[in-house]
Amino acid sequence: MGIRIGVCGTGSFARAFIPLFQAHPAVDEVVLADLLPDRLAEQAAHFGVARTVDSLDALCDSDVDAIALFTQRHLHGPQTLQALAAGKHVYCAVPIANTEAEIRAIVQAVADTRLIYMTGETSYYYPATLYCRSRFRAGDFGRFVYGEGQYYHDMAHGFYEAYQHSGGAEWKRVAGIPPMHYPTHSVSMILSVTGAHVTHVSCLGFDDQHEDGVFRPGANLWDNPYSNQTALMRTSDGGMMRINEFRRVGWKGLASVQMSLFGTQGCYQEQANAQAWVTLADGPEDVTALLETRNLPVEKTAGVHEAVLQDYHMSVSQVHSVERLPREFAGLRNGHHGSHQFLADDFVKAVVTGSLPPNHVWAAARYCLPGLIAHQSSLQEGAMLPLPDLGDPPADWPLLDLDTKLQ
Ligand SMILES: NC(=O)c1ccc[n+]([C@@H]2O[C@H](COP(=O)([O-])OP(=O)(O)OC[C@H]3O[C@@H](n4cnc5c(N)ncnc54)[C@H](O)[C@@H]3O)[C@@H](O)[C@H]2O)c1
Predict the structure, then answer these.
(1) What was the pLDDT predicted at 80?
(2) Which value, in Å, is the radius of gyration of the alpha carbons in the chain?
(3) d(CA 162, ligand 1 centre) in Å
(4) Quick one: which atom of ligand 1 is closest to the CA of 10?
(5) Cβ of residue 229 lying under 6 Å from some atom of ligand 1
(6) Domain ranges of the chain
(7) Angle of CA points 121, 24, 406, to nearest 5°
(8) Can you give the pTM of this predicted structure?
């Protein structure tokens, strides 16, 4: 018998995952929940979903085994804790939470209950990350020296629409979230390759002057004045990282999330729409074609910016192991550089087998905490701050064998 998954939040991002959960052979039923009845009814009709409920509360009271949260990013912490307290396994779109206290509470709840928690970190399955992880494990990088991770996403490329879509008249209160409160795409690209964690961070912020008034003290829930933030981080393996989180930047590239990684023996360098591998012995090898994911034709969707839609309509690259995916996924959309199908499959397999997905709660904490502390540092004009580390998963909790086949 398969599992029942409740998808909470039927805004724009959930639409990329509902068909994947529906198609997975180990999922018996997908239930939808949203606070907005019209949106909920429309999405249920679109995806042919029979059962809907009107809130996360109702989903927690229902018989679903797992809840997949696709709600606004500042709600994830309390909602995850609520779902875990109701005995549900949790998949949550990034970030894990908005405060250190929430992250600590989630890690503790998972450790106590042994429920599956997974952060939906799309960067984990980006071609560049897969390529570097494989090379790093093979020793081709040597020792990690330095990594650059960046997420460049101007407000004009879909964020106005995204925040107004669910935020109503109060949308600026949430849109002004500190960029470093959403660090996980860029931080995870480096840490999921090296396996280290951040020990110290120093960060500076760009004082926003834009007429939209989103990033201003008093205008948002965090009194945040910064639209762009740059952090320098020390990692536990003795290396260094530079993370850029920019929301006001004249940038339009194929990939808004990018990384470069330098080791003592080899380096991976990413620039606008081009990627190269370099070693001490050999000059640049162009790996752009190897790591390319192709956009599928975009279906226009009211209220969703074209740049965001492009992200949801991508296929796989040559470095994705599609053979591990359920064959039922063949032909379905696979957004964010081929990552969606792998994330959906990881979660279902983890719940069914009781083993830890790669993006488990301890990894999620390491992807997010550096940004939360970075923001504090930027408010102190770059003070170097130490970082708490919430440790590794318990040794007796096995990691998921990603090649597990489920019927
Ligand atoms: N690459 C990525 O990983 C990526 C990309 C896009 C979005 N995201 C994340 O996905 C999440 C969703 O983004 P989106 O653009 O779809 O947001 P959205 O605002 O379009 O949708 C959120 C939905 O959640 C619903 N909701 C909130 N609280 C609820 C509750 N208690 N019960 C039931 N429904 C509730 C809202 O009514 C809304 O319909 C965000 O956290 C965002 O950060 C991640």
Answers:
(1) 98
(2) 20
(3) 9
(4) 39
(5) no
(6) 3-121, 123-320+355-386
(7) 100
(8) 0.96
